Structure formats: structure tokens, C-alpha cells
Amino acid sequence: MVSRAKIKELLNESACSHNKEKKKGEGCDMPKPGLAAGGCAFDGAQISLFPYADAVHLVHGPQTCLGASWETRETLSSYGGRNHTYMGFTTGITTQDVIFGGDKRLEASIEYIVKHYAPEAIFIYSTCVTAMIGDTIDSIASETSKKYSIPIVPVHAAGFVGGKNLGSRLAGEAVLEHLIGTKEPAYLSPYDINLIGDYNVTGDMWQYLPILEEIGVRVLSSLSGDGRVGEIRTAHRAKLNVIVCAKSLITLCRKMQERYGIPYISVSFYGKRDTTNAIMQIVEALGDAALVAKAKEVLACREAALEAKLLPYKKLFAGKKAVLNTGGNKAWSIASGLQDLGIEVVATSIRKSTKEDIEKAKEYLGEGGVLMDAPASQQAKVIDEKKADILLAGGRSLYTALKKKISFIDVNQEKKVSYGGYDGLLNLAEDLRHAFANPVFRNVAASAPWEVH
Amino acid sequence: MEAIALSKHEHKPLQVNPIKLSQPMGATLAFLGVANCLPLMHGAQGCASYTKVFYTRHFNEPIALYNTSVSDITAVLDGGDYSILMAIENITKKNPTMQPELVGLCSTGLTETKGDDIRSVASFVELPYAYVHTPDYEGGLESGWALTVKALIEQHTQPAQTIRANKLVLFVHVSFTPLEAEKLKEFCESFGFEVLACPDLSTSLDGCLSEGQGKLGAGGITLEDIRRLATCAHAVTIGESMKAAANALKAKNDKIVLRHFDALSGLANSDDFVAYLMQIRHIDPKPNIKRWRGRLQDAMLDTHFLIGSSQFLILGEPDMCFGMCALLQSVGGTIEAVVASTYSPILERIEAKNVFVGDLEDAQKHFCNVDLIVGNFHVERLLHEEEKKIALVLRGYPNYEELGNALKSDILYEGSTLFLFEVANKLREVKHRL
Q: 20 to 30 A Cα–Cα from A320, which one of A401, A418, B173, B189?
């Protein structure tokens, strides 16, 4: 089980930007009763580790935990073996287990998995009920790990310990304690990095990995997009940890710096400017003049190729204005992408943003940009005042777009294509082109015959 | 391959690729069929978050669902009243214009394990309040829905001594789509009944564009109508799981006549239902209903050749599986296996080679023997691994693969007709490819 001290430590991550504004001891907020959305710690832990396709992820709990969540995320993997990310494994405990304990069921489940699926590793996720009834997951994990000679990693992130962010940190802890440093890489290169926090949703990583490869930077391991358990075990030999758009795993990186002396940087790969910056930051952190020179050369070439492809879109989008209403880093990352396409972003939401995100939004939108802190009530007015042409927001805002008779893109919907890296920008451009050209918003907004006076 | 027997007990220690969904998820769906209900899940925040995303993706609609966000501290110190009352206060404070007519509370595995007293909280809640015990380590989607319907009646329907002659209430099992609920209501109305469905998804999750969606349950049966349900002359249950709800209503007024149907799929089941309605109302069905019966007869003849020479695998909630089997078997289809999410006595009445409770790992072992599978979207990925071409008809929760899931109907003469054609067309695609 996780000790209270550990939870407190994780909640108080000193390097986390959520924390800077808070008084000592406050840390990340505990979830408030009455929330309409937001996942639990288990959700966060599962998101962080699930992309390991060579491992089986066994959820030790009742039915909702896995029954409602498996096969929902488009975290792509190039793994050649049986891809376990498309599968769901749960002990699905029953009343009997709640009364007499679920240890036997857990042991039998592990045996079953080893016998029928022979994975590289097994992650066991404790959940609210199994944490509460006191199943001895740690000792079962270590005993079965010895018995079957594969890593069996307990992940203690029961839903009630906190939100997604904390769960993600707890997943990082599990990886640090049980996997990192347990294996040596086949060979080392001077430009080995770990990618931390990119889950390769819709193949986001594959947008920029070829660029890193061309420059000569090697990804030693990933946590956990298109990752392998065998590789993360060697992560302690990397020269640099690169955190991709994920504040939650900063704890892991800080600890790896303390334990293994690996420095870390935080980057984002949304839009052209960010992608270029991210890659330059990586090569500069690796500190090799030849590598930096090579990177500049490769980026110049890639940027020029991208610009050529963007030209027709820029012509098409000239003079278009957009209002953006979405949370977190999307508030500026999508803004950045839109600007790269020549669209003026006249307003964005900062309702759920950290101080860092707000600063970035300010920087990207410039003087005239409106930062909306109550977008639900503000966006309609802003659309009128700024004469916006398109609203990019969650599904609930669709009605606003219909009323204002402007185009709409649901940015919170599970996306099917990647907007990451250079080429992701072309995907965004295509989606925008279709949105602007589509008459559906005008057509749907027509009055019904019985409404015409 | 070793056959798995139908049993209340599991045949292995875990589920691999589960089809079982949880009781709180069924309860949520039921509360969403009550007008202006504020569905509140009492558990850690993930339970509600997963459920909300699950239905949002299935229906492509905003889903109203809140949670009490039980934390490690409240898990130990609170008996439930703090987090439930705080949740209601926070929600209503944050949305001052919101006027919930009912707080629909369901528990989860966590709050049942710690043994919260969700009943006595009622005296502190200033709004009408319904509660249901739905641990997710018991039962499944179907029982969670059914328990909630029973709870609504037990807690809110007022006892009555008199009945209204033509007032009829429908209790349908969880796998009824919003359109099926609507079709069934209209069907009964055409016989001159005053019809209610409890709950009623036909006006809440039917996907109708309107402003301000997603804060509260949209359409659905009103609390006032639930209160007055005991004045119904007739209560009709569709599906084994709904019998307990009807019995709860009968306890409120002994004059109510109950009538049960296992399913409304296929000619025989639809005929039984029509005969029942005719018997009460002493009138002939409307011409359109008769016409659809003729179409179904024709469809059965048109499709019997393809379906009659095919093997089927049916996956899902027990009550739905029963109806599907009846319909396919009526045109000669051979049911290779039924893999149900949970145990129900109705499964004992299905005549098929294999009927058992299991997961997709179990189901997959039967893939090699079938031509068509009826199941949820998880089946699709597994079919990619098969060399043999197998057809798939997507039914049940969840279906993230297709749009318009609320508007499928497989019941009565009309729905059965369209279902048979869909199945036959899918079969033709995989069986006659030259």
C-alpha cells in the first residue's frame, strides 16, 4: 500500500507548476464532491502505463474500473508481438472476494495470464475496493515475479487517493521502483534520450520521431507511447529525459536526476514553432555542437518543405479569425497551430489553465487577444465583437456556433488523426478546410417551418 | 474445445476482454430516463468519469452525471452523508439556474464496501431523492438498471386504491434503445392506451438537438408520473430482469394487472403481445401494424435461406440475447453459442448448443464455427485476427464504431423485419464473395 507520506510527497511536487502559487503543504487539490468530470488516480495510472503493448495490464478490482475503460484510447503501437493494449484483463472481483479477500483470485489470474499470454511483464493495478479490503498485492507481485521470472509490477493508485494527475505520478513511482535500472541496454550512444509522458495518441510521436532519428538522437526508452517494458528497464542509462506535455511525470524525472544524474527538459510538439523549439532544446541539452548544427540543417529543410505544403492553406485561410475554448495546454498549443496556418486567434479560454499556460497563451495571442476566464458566457459576445469565422470548442458549445452561424470544430472529441509535429499541422489544416467549406452549420441552423413568422 | 456450462459461478479467475458492464452504469442509464434528474454516483471520481465518457461516446451526446468524489479521507471518516450532501450543494451552487426534480444516487463497490448508509441521507437532502445500492462487484448493467427502476417505484410511487382503466406502464430491460422505447409506446398508444415507460429513454437519449444539454437528464418520465404510477391498470414487463420492478408496483396497488413478456422480437413474440393488447382493448390493430406483420412474414421467407444455413454467436446482456435467439431461430438460424455478460434465469430457457456466462476470450473460441456475430464494438478488433470472414452486427453497449446507436430498433413486426434484412445482407457479404 502507499504510505500517506508518499501521497503527501507526490501531492507536493516541488517542481510542478501547479504548486508555485500555493502555500506550503497545500499541493494539488483533492477532488471536490460534485464534479461532473475528471478521472481518478487509477485512470491516470492506467493512461500512463497502458501503452506498454508487451505487458499485460491486470486490473484488480470490480467491474467499472476496466469494463468501462478498455479499448478506449488510440495509443498506437508498432509492437510486433501480441498487442495487449487492445485487450482488457480484470480480476472482476465479486462479493465473495470482498468478504474473504481477493488474494487467491489475483494469484490464480497471474498464473492464467503467464500460461496463456506469456507477456514480457505484468502490471497489477490496485483499485478502491481491493485497496480497501487490504489485498496483499505487493507480496503477491514479488512472489509471482520470482516464480515466473518476469517483472510483475504493483501499481498502487486506487481511485480514491486523488485525481488523474496523482495517479500518473504513482505510476511513475511504480516504474521507478520496479523497472528502471533493472536491465542494461544492448549498446549506448552519446545521444540517448528517454521520452516521458507522450502516449502516442493517434500516433503523435511518429510525427516527430523520424526527425530525431534523422538528426541522430536515439530514443532509448519511452514512458510509455509505443514503449516496451524491456526498454524502460534500461532508462537509467539515458543522457536526457524529455518530458512531453505532461506535468505529472516531473516527479519521476526529478528523482531520476537525483538517483542517476539524468537532467530533464520539458517540451511540446504542437505546431511548427513548438516542434522546432522542442528539437532544438533537446539537441542543445545534449550539448554537442555537431549535433546542433545537424539539427539546424535538418529542421531548415523540413520547415521549408512544410511551408511549401502550407502555402495553399494559408491562402485559403487568409483573414480568418478563430475563437478557441478548450482547457489546459490546448488553450495555447492549438492556438499556436492555428497561427502557423495563418489564422488569427482572437480569443482563447484560460479557465482551467495553470499560470504557465496562461503566460504562454498571452504570449501567443498578443496584445489584442482576449483571454476568457468564463468562456461559456463570454464566447458568444467575443464572436460578435471580433467577427470570428470559426469556433473551436467542446461539443457543448456547438449551439453557440449554430446561433452565430459560424463554423465549428469539436476539439475535445477523441481525435482520429494526430495534430502533432510538422505533419500534424497538415492534418489540422485539412480539418479546418473542411470545416470552413461545410455548409452544415448554416443548414442546421435554419428555422423550422413552424418557427417562421 | 471444452464446453463451458451455464452457471452462476465463474469458470476462471479473471476476465479477458470483458463484456460485462457494471451495476452503477446501469443505474446511471435508468436515472437518465427520468426528467430533470441529477444522476449522482457515490464513489471515487473515476467511476462516474468513466461512465460519463462511455455513454457520451456511445450516444454522441452530452451526458449528465456527477460524482461524490470519495477521497482517501472521506473513504475512512465519512459515512456517506458528508460527500453526498457536499456534492449536491456544490453542484446546485455552481449552477444556480439548475432545477433538478430528483437526485438519483447510486452507490459503487467502494461505498458499499465501506458500508455507507445512503438511505438515511435522504432526510438531509432538500430535493426529492432516490437511492439504489449498486456495488459493481455484483450483477451487471442489466441488474443495475432493474434495481434502479425498482428503487424509483418503492421510494416514490404513492400507493393507490383505484386504477385508470386504460393506463399502462412499460418496464423494459436495459438493452432497449431510445427508439425501441418510442416504437413500443406508440404501438401501445395505437390501441388506445395512455402509456408511460419507466424509465423513458425515448425522449432523453434519442439524440435530439436542443440548447443547454448535458447538465441534467433531458427528457424522460417525470417524477410526478412516477408518483402516480400505481393508478395504472396494466403493468407490462419486457425481459426477465424487470419482473421485480413490476412486483414493487403491484405492492402499491393490488388492482394492477401484471403481464410479462420475455421478448418482443420475432413474429410469435409480437403476435403474443398484440393478442394481449387486443384482449384488453377489444379492437383490431391499426392497418399499418397489420401491414408490418405481412412484411415480417415476407422478410422471414426472403431471409430464411441465408439465415437458415448460418451459424450465429450472440453476445450481450441476458434479456437481449434471449430476444435475438428467438428471432434468428424463427427463420432457421443455428445459435452456436450465447455468451452472456452475467447470469440470469432467462439463459436457462435459451435452446442453443452453448449458453454460458463469459467474456470475449471465451467467445473467440467459437468464432471458427460461426458466420455472424451479434455483439458490441469490442468484437470488431478481434475479428481482424481471424482469417475467416465473419459478419458482425453491432448491438449492445458500447458501440463506439457506429453513429446513430439510439435509433436502431429490432422489436415488434417492424424492427424484426429490418433486423432480419440487416442480418441477411451482412451474411451475404461474407458468404457469397466471388
A: A418
